[in-house]
Amino acid sequence: MNPKQGQQNSQDSPQTRNAVRMNDIHHVIAVLSGKGGVGKSLVSSLLAVALRQQRHQVGILDADITGPSIPKMFFPHTARPTSEPRGMLPVESRTGIKVMSINLLLEQEDQAVIWRGPLIGKAIQQFWEEVLWGRLDYLIVDLPPGTSDASLTVMQSLSLSGAVLVTAPPALAGMVVKKAAQMAVQLPVPILGLVENMSYFVCPDTGKKYEIFGPSHAEETASAMHVPFLGRLPIDPQIAALCDAGRIEDYPAEAFGPIAKALVDSAPMARPPAPRRAS
Ligand SMILES: Nc1ncnc2c1ncn2[C@@H]1O[C@H](COP(=O)(O)OP(=O)(O)OP(=O)(O)O)[C@@H](O)[C@H]1O
Ligand SMILES: [Mg+2]
Protein backbone atom coordinates (compact mmCIF):
# COMPACT_ATOMS: atom_id res chain seq x y z
CA MET A 1 0.00 0.00 0.00
CA ASN A 2 1.29 3.45 -0.84
CA PRO A 3 -0.56 6.76 -0.42
CA LYS A 4 -2.00 6.50 -3.94
CA GLN A 5 -3.58 3.18 -3.07
CA GLY A 6 -6.03 5.13 -0.91
CA GLN A 7 -7.90 5.42 -4.20
CA GLN A 8 -8.47 1.66 -4.45
CA ASN A 9 -11.60 0.05 -3.14
CA SER A 10 -10.39 -1.67 0.01
CA GLN A 11 -13.34 -4.11 -0.21
CA ASP A 12 -11.81 -5.59 -3.38
CA SER A 13 -8.35 -6.11 -2.01
CA PRO A 14 -7.25 -9.67 -1.15
CA GLN A 15 -5.24 -8.10 1.70
CA THR A 16 -8.51 -6.94 3.26
CA ARG A 17 -9.81 -10.46 3.41
CA ASN A 18 -6.60 -11.73 4.96
CA ALA A 19 -5.35 -9.07 7.38
CA VAL A 20 -8.63 -8.20 9.06
CA ARG A 21 -9.34 -11.90 9.69
CA MET A 22 -5.91 -12.45 11.25
CA ASN A 23 -6.22 -9.56 13.72
CA ASP A 24 -7.41 -10.07 17.29
CA ILE A 25 -7.84 -6.62 18.82
CA HIS A 26 -9.51 -6.41 22.21
CA HIS A 27 -9.96 -2.67 22.86
CA VAL A 28 -9.92 0.14 20.33
CA ILE A 29 -9.70 3.58 21.94
CA ALA A 30 -9.94 6.79 19.92
CA VAL A 31 -8.32 9.98 21.20
CA LEU A 32 -10.11 13.10 20.05
CA SER A 33 -10.69 16.70 20.91
CA GLY A 34 -12.26 18.72 18.16
CA LYS A 35 -9.61 21.37 18.91
CA GLY A 36 -6.22 21.41 17.19
CA GLY A 37 -2.90 21.44 18.99
CA VAL A 38 -4.20 20.57 22.47
CA GLY A 39 -2.13 17.39 22.74
CA LYS A 40 -4.20 14.58 21.22
CA SER A 41 -1.16 12.91 19.68
CA LEU A 42 0.79 13.34 22.91
CA VAL A 43 -2.02 11.78 24.96
CA SER A 44 -2.35 8.94 22.38
CA SER A 45 1.39 8.31 22.64
CA LEU A 46 1.62 8.49 26.43
CA LEU A 47 -1.42 6.26 26.77
CA ALA A 48 0.21 3.68 24.49
CA VAL A 49 3.49 3.94 26.40
CA ALA A 50 1.78 3.57 29.79
CA LEU A 51 -0.25 0.55 28.62
CA ARG A 52 2.88 -1.02 27.15
CA GLN A 53 4.70 -0.47 30.45
CA GLN A 54 1.87 -2.46 32.05
CA ARG A 55 2.92 -5.27 29.64
CA HIS A 56 -0.08 -4.99 27.34
CA GLN A 57 0.22 -5.56 23.60
CA VAL A 58 -0.38 -2.10 22.15
CA GLY A 59 -0.72 -0.49 18.72
CA ILE A 60 -1.29 3.07 17.50
CA LEU A 61 -3.26 3.79 14.35
CA ASP A 62 -2.48 7.34 13.25
CA ALA A 63 -5.77 8.50 11.74
CA ASP A 64 -4.40 11.99 11.15
CA ILE A 65 -3.73 11.56 7.44
CA THR A 66 -2.97 15.17 6.58
CA GLY A 67 -1.03 16.09 9.76
CA PRO A 68 0.45 12.88 11.15
CA SER A 69 2.66 13.28 14.23
CA ILE A 70 2.96 9.80 15.75
CA PRO A 71 6.05 8.53 13.82
CA LYS A 72 7.99 11.67 14.74
CA MET A 73 7.30 10.99 18.42
CA PHE A 74 8.34 7.31 18.35
CA PHE A 75 11.08 6.95 15.76
CA PRO A 76 14.34 8.92 15.89
CA HIS A 77 15.19 7.70 12.37
CA THR A 78 13.22 6.90 9.24
CA ALA A 79 11.14 3.76 9.78
CA ARG A 80 9.31 1.80 7.07
CA PRO A 81 6.59 -0.85 7.29
CA THR A 82 7.16 -4.10 5.47
CA SER A 83 4.61 -6.04 3.45
CA GLU A 84 3.80 -9.70 3.23
CA PRO A 85 1.15 -11.38 1.06
CA ARG A 86 -1.50 -11.23 3.80
CA GLY A 87 -1.06 -7.52 4.51
CA MET A 88 1.23 -4.81 5.78
CA LEU A 89 3.17 -5.12 9.02
CA PRO A 90 3.15 -2.08 11.32
CA VAL A 91 6.49 -0.70 12.46
CA GLU A 92 7.47 -1.61 16.03
CA SER A 93 8.82 1.05 18.36
CA ARG A 94 11.76 0.53 20.72
CA THR A 95 9.48 -0.90 23.44
CA GLY A 96 7.33 -2.93 21.03
CA ILE A 97 4.40 -0.60 20.30
CA LYS A 98 3.05 -1.29 16.78
CA VAL A 99 2.62 1.90 14.76
CA MET A 100 0.93 2.60 11.42
CA SER A 101 0.81 6.08 9.93
CA ILE A 102 0.69 7.60 6.47
CA ASN A 103 4.03 9.23 7.26
CA LEU A 104 5.69 5.82 7.43
CA LEU A 105 4.73 5.38 3.76
CA LEU A 106 5.83 8.75 2.41
CA GLU A 107 9.22 9.28 0.79
CA GLN A 108 9.73 12.54 2.69
CA GLU A 109 8.25 13.16 6.15
CA ASP A 110 7.30 16.72 5.17
CA GLN A 111 5.57 15.65 1.93
CA ALA A 112 2.00 17.04 1.87
CA VAL A 113 -0.99 14.70 1.54
CA ILE A 114 -3.65 16.77 -0.21
CA TRP A 115 -6.70 14.54 -0.28
CA ARG A 116 -10.42 15.10 -0.04
CA GLY A 117 -12.49 13.42 2.67
CA PRO A 118 -13.37 10.16 0.86
CA LEU A 119 -9.72 9.33 0.22
CA ILE A 120 -8.81 10.14 3.80
CA GLY A 121 -11.57 7.83 4.98
CA LYS A 122 -10.37 5.08 2.67
CA ALA A 123 -6.80 5.34 3.94
CA ILE A 124 -8.01 5.00 7.55
CA GLN A 125 -10.09 1.96 6.61
CA GLN A 126 -7.05 0.42 4.94
CA PHE A 127 -5.04 0.94 8.13
CA TRP A 128 -7.77 -0.95 9.96
CA GLU A 129 -8.46 -3.68 7.42
CA GLU A 130 -5.16 -4.29 5.62
CA VAL A 131 -2.62 -3.96 8.41
CA LEU A 132 -1.53 -7.09 10.23
CA TRP A 133 -1.88 -5.83 13.77
CA GLY A 134 -1.98 -9.38 15.14
CA ARG A 135 -3.14 -9.80 18.73
CA LEU A 136 -3.48 -6.49 20.56
CA ASP A 137 -4.89 -5.67 23.97
CA TYR A 138 -5.25 -2.01 23.00
CA LEU A 139 -5.25 -0.18 19.68
CA ILE A 140 -5.06 3.57 20.24
CA VAL A 141 -6.41 5.69 17.37
CA ASP A 142 -5.02 9.22 17.16
CA LEU A 143 -7.56 11.52 15.48
CA PRO A 144 -7.00 14.82 13.72
CA PRO A 145 -8.76 17.95 15.00
CA GLY A 146 -12.38 18.49 14.05
CA THR A 147 -15.53 16.43 13.80
CA SER A 148 -15.60 15.83 10.06
CA ASP A 149 -14.38 13.09 7.68
CA ALA A 150 -11.58 11.31 9.54
CA SER A 151 -13.36 11.38 12.90
CA LEU A 152 -16.57 10.16 11.27
CA THR A 153 -14.79 7.30 9.51
CA VAL A 154 -13.09 6.20 12.72
CA MET A 155 -16.29 6.35 14.77
CA GLN A 156 -18.43 4.60 12.16
CA SER A 157 -16.06 2.05 10.65
CA LEU A 158 -13.82 0.89 13.49
CA SER A 159 -14.95 -1.29 16.39
CA LEU A 160 -14.40 1.38 19.03
CA SER A 161 -14.56 0.48 22.71
CA GLY A 162 -14.66 4.17 23.53
CA ALA A 163 -13.11 7.59 23.15
CA VAL A 164 -10.83 9.72 25.30
CA LEU A 165 -11.32 13.48 25.04
CA VAL A 166 -8.41 15.89 25.33
CA THR A 167 -8.78 19.51 26.32
CA ALA A 168 -6.63 22.42 27.49
CA PRO A 169 -7.34 25.21 30.01
CA PRO A 170 -8.64 27.97 27.70
CA ALA A 171 -12.45 28.12 27.67
CA LEU A 172 -12.27 28.03 23.86
CA ALA A 173 -10.77 24.52 24.00
CA GLY A 174 -13.49 23.47 26.45
CA MET A 175 -16.19 24.74 24.09
CA VAL A 176 -14.77 22.86 21.09
CA VAL A 177 -14.20 19.64 23.04
CA LYS A 178 -17.91 19.66 23.92
CA LYS A 179 -18.65 19.47 20.18
CA ALA A 180 -16.44 16.38 19.91
CA ALA A 181 -18.25 14.92 22.92
CA GLN A 182 -21.62 15.54 21.23
CA MET A 183 -20.38 13.75 18.14
CA ALA A 184 -19.38 10.73 20.23
CA VAL A 185 -22.77 10.73 21.97
CA GLN A 186 -24.67 10.94 18.67
CA LEU A 187 -22.83 8.13 16.87
CA PRO A 188 -22.86 6.59 19.66
CA VAL A 189 -19.38 5.91 21.05
CA PRO A 190 -18.87 5.69 24.85
CA ILE A 191 -16.71 8.49 26.27
CA LEU A 192 -14.17 6.95 28.62
CA GLY A 193 -13.00 10.23 30.10
CA LEU A 194 -11.45 13.67 29.72
CA VAL A 195 -7.74 14.54 30.02
CA GLU A 196 -6.54 18.12 30.38
CA ASN A 197 -3.15 18.85 28.80
CA MET A 198 -0.94 21.90 29.39
CA SER A 199 -2.76 22.51 32.69
CA TYR A 200 0.09 24.17 34.55
CA PHE A 201 3.83 24.72 34.62
CA VAL A 202 6.03 23.97 37.60
CA CYS A 203 8.98 26.37 37.77
CA PRO A 204 12.11 24.20 38.10
CA ASP A 205 13.89 26.82 40.23
CA THR A 206 11.18 27.49 42.82
CA GLY A 207 8.80 24.54 42.47
CA LYS A 208 5.96 27.09 42.19
CA LYS A 209 2.99 26.12 40.01
CA TYR A 210 1.79 28.58 37.35
CA GLU A 211 -1.45 28.23 35.40
CA ILE A 212 -0.03 29.76 32.22
CA PHE A 213 -3.17 29.37 30.10
CA GLY A 214 -5.47 30.45 32.93
CA PRO A 215 -7.41 28.44 35.48
CA SER A 216 -8.54 24.93 34.64
CA HIS A 217 -12.17 24.29 33.74
CA ALA A 218 -11.61 20.61 33.02
CA GLU A 219 -13.40 19.12 35.98
CA GLU A 220 -16.45 21.35 35.37
CA THR A 221 -16.35 20.45 31.66
CA ALA A 222 -16.17 16.74 32.48
CA SER A 223 -19.02 16.93 34.95
CA ALA A 224 -21.16 18.99 32.52
CA MET A 225 -20.62 16.21 29.96
CA HIS A 226 -21.19 13.47 32.58
CA VAL A 227 -17.83 11.84 31.79
CA PRO A 228 -15.01 10.82 34.16
CA PHE A 229 -12.19 13.31 34.61
CA LEU A 230 -9.00 11.29 34.10
CA GLY A 231 -6.33 13.83 35.09
CA ARG A 232 -4.03 16.68 34.10
CA LEU A 233 -0.71 16.90 32.33
CA PRO A 234 1.70 19.78 32.99
CA ILE A 235 3.47 21.88 30.39
CA ASP A 236 6.86 20.23 30.47
CA PRO A 237 9.73 21.21 28.15
CA GLN A 238 10.99 17.62 28.46
CA ILE A 239 7.79 16.45 26.70
CA ALA A 240 8.42 18.73 23.72
CA ALA A 241 12.09 17.68 23.53
CA LEU A 242 11.27 13.95 23.68
CA CYS A 243 8.49 14.34 21.07
CA ASP A 244 10.90 16.08 18.69
CA ALA A 245 13.63 13.47 19.27
CA GLY A 246 11.40 10.43 18.63
CA ARG A 247 11.91 9.35 22.24
CA ILE A 248 8.50 9.78 23.85
CA GLU A 249 8.93 6.30 25.34
CA ASP A 250 11.58 7.78 27.65
CA TYR A 251 9.04 10.08 29.38
CA PRO A 252 8.80 9.13 33.08
CA ALA A 253 5.95 6.72 33.59
CA GLU A 254 4.74 8.26 36.84
CA ALA A 255 3.52 11.40 35.05
CA PHE A 256 0.94 9.58 32.94
CA GLY A 257 0.54 6.30 34.84
CA PRO A 258 -2.41 7.44 37.01
CA ILE A 259 -4.29 8.76 33.95
CA ALA A 260 -3.75 5.46 32.09
CA LYS A 261 -4.84 3.51 35.15
CA ALA A 262 -8.01 5.61 35.52
CA LEU A 263 -8.73 4.98 31.86
CA VAL A 264 -8.14 1.23 32.01
CA ASP A 265 -10.39 1.07 35.08
CA SER A 266 -13.15 2.90 33.18
CA ALA A 267 -12.70 0.99 29.88
CA PRO A 268 -15.32 -1.66 29.17
CA MET A 269 -13.86 -5.12 29.59
CA ALA A 270 -16.20 -6.64 27.02
CA ARG A 271 -15.09 -6.99 23.43
CA PRO A 272 -16.09 -4.04 21.25
CA PRO A 273 -19.23 -4.34 19.13
CA ALA A 274 -19.07 -5.07 15.40
CA PRO A 275 -18.07 -2.02 13.34
CA ARG A 276 -20.76 0.36 12.16
CA ARG A 277 -20.33 0.85 8.44
CA ALA A 278 -20.15 4.39 7.09
CA SER A 279 -23.23 5.21 5.06
N1 LIG B 1 2.16 19.16 28.02
C1 LIG B 1 3.03 19.54 27.12
N2 LIG B 1 4.25 20.05 27.48
C2 LIG B 1 5.12 20.43 26.53
N3 LIG B 1 4.94 20.32 25.22
C3 LIG B 1 3.77 19.82 24.81
C4 LIG B 1 2.76 19.40 25.72
N4 LIG B 1 1.72 18.93 25.00
C5 LIG B 1 2.05 19.05 23.72
N5 LIG B 1 3.29 19.59 23.61
C6 LIG B 1 4.01 19.90 22.37
O1 LIG B 1 3.08 20.34 21.42
C7 LIG B 1 3.19 19.52 20.25
C8 LIG B 1 1.79 19.35 19.71
O2 LIG B 1 1.09 18.43 20.50
P1 LIG B 1 0.22 17.32 19.80
O3 LIG B 1 0.80 16.99 18.47
O4 LIG B 1 0.05 16.22 20.78
O5 LIG B 1 -1.15 18.12 19.61
P2 LIG B 1 -2.41 17.64 18.75
O6 LIG B 1 -3.64 18.04 19.50
O7 LIG B 1 -2.26 16.22 18.39
O8 LIG B 1 -2.24 18.55 17.47
P3 LIG B 1 -3.04 18.38 16.06
O9 LIG B 1 -4.39 19.01 16.29
O10 LIG B 1 -2.21 19.14 15.09
O11 LIG B 1 -3.13 16.92 15.76
C9 LIG B 1 3.88 18.24 20.69
O12 LIG B 1 4.67 17.67 19.69
C10 LIG B 1 4.73 18.67 21.82
O13 LIG B 1 5.98 19.11 21.29
MG1 LIG C 1 -2.22 15.27 16.51
Commentary on this structure:
The chain starts with 13 loop residues before the first helix and ends in a 13-residue tail after the last helix. Strand 3 (82-84) and strand 4 (87-89) form a beta hairpin. It has a single domain, classed as Rossmann fold (3-Layer(aba) Sandwich), CATH 3.40.50. It is built from nine helices and twelve strands. It is α/β, with parallel strands linked by helices and 279 residues long. Helix 2 packs across helix 9 and helix 4 runs parallel beside helix 5 (149-157). The structure holds adenosine-5'-triphosphate and magnesium ion (MG). Adenosine-5'-triphosphate binds next to helix 2 and helix 8. Residues 40-41, 64, 69, 142 line the site of magnesium ion.
Structure characteristics:
8-stranded mixed sheet, binds magnesium ion, 9 helices, Rossmann fold, 279 residues, two-stranded antiparallel sheet, binds adenosine-5'-triphosphate, globular
Helix content: 25-40%
CATH architectural designation? 3-Layer(aba) Sandwich
Distance between the termini: 24 Å
Q: Return Rg in Å.
A: 18 Å
Q: Could you give the count of β-strands?
A: 12
- Secondary-structure class: alpha/beta
Order of helices and strands: HEHEHEEEEHEHEHEEEHEHH
Largest sheet: 8 strands, mixed
Number of helices: 9
Whole-number mean pLDDT: 88
Major β-sheet strand ordering: 5-6-2-7-1-8-9-12
Tally of domains: 1
Bound molecules: adenosine-5'-triphosphate, magnesium ion
CATH topology: Rossmann fold
The CATH homologous superfamily is termed P-loop containing nucleotide triphosphate hydrolases
Q: Show unreliable segments.
A: 1-12, 269-273
What percentage of the residues does DSSP assign to strands (E)? 15-25%
CATH class: Alpha Beta
What does the overall shape look like? globular
